Amino acid sequence: MSAKTILVTGGHGFIGSNMIRYYLNKYPGYQIINIDYNTEAASPANIDCPEVSARYSFHRVDIRNAYAINHLFELYEITDILHFAAETRDIDSVGEIRLYEQTNVLGTLNLLQAAQDNWMKKEHQPKTAYATSRFHHITLADTKDDSLYSFSKTKTDALVLEFHEKYGLEVVTTASPKVFGPMQKESEQIPTCIRQVLNGESIIVEKEEQLRDWLFVGDLCEAIDTVFHLGEAGKLYATGSTASLTDGELMQEVASLQTDFPGNTEAVDQPKKIESHAFKASRSQIPGFEPFTSLETALKITIDWYSKKYKYASL
What we know:
CATH superfamily of the largest domain: NAD(P)-binding Rossmann-like Domain
Distance between the termini: 37 Å
CATH architecture of the largest domain: 3-Layer(aba) Sandwich
């Protein structure tokens, strides 16, 4: 595999940090430049890789700042971009709603423009040194969500495709369902459930009957890697899922796998009947790839990681 210098945006976030670790371990010839503005969604402790420090660097950069993005291209010969940075929080303040547009749309535009300026001679003609350079973008598999976040991502998807069709920039997109696994923010649903069981608290599920597709983050990294290297430019590839479960069913599965820990096991004493849709994973659209980690294995890996973090014995 030829050497690459990859700019990863949002590398202190859940998916970005897992992807950086995956690439540093799998590709010894790759240099990773991680940029993150370190908002409340970031966890800098997720990236602690002193053994590969020569191949990894971090810059605190806001992707809304076009000057800062362009400066990175002056500092490094960036060959590819893996774009994960996004404003995903549920924002209630009217004054902050603009962050969806500014970060998700304008921020992506800044990255696309920098890539276009540095990689392309002119429309549809890359510079020789950047003939294989790619811009990878991640988006939502569920397009039915009517949130402002989802709306901004739809606009971003169209913008990314426009740079390919109009200017010839090599772009590929991976569409993912709800993702879980190690290094996720502790306020998210599965980490919260793990902590509640470990602490002997009642498990609280806000939307118990909501059905979702779920994908383990390790499988997502494999999917992104496949799309990034082998996907056809301009195409969007759905990852498929590990399982399809309601929130209540998933929390039941999490609790049932924590029987070795002190805590509230009432949820598994009289388990509810799992509906027929459960564990029916959706198919991947990525050639040669299917999610390979079973739900039980994925949850055990996740529980083990958080249990160690919370200083409990592992499974």
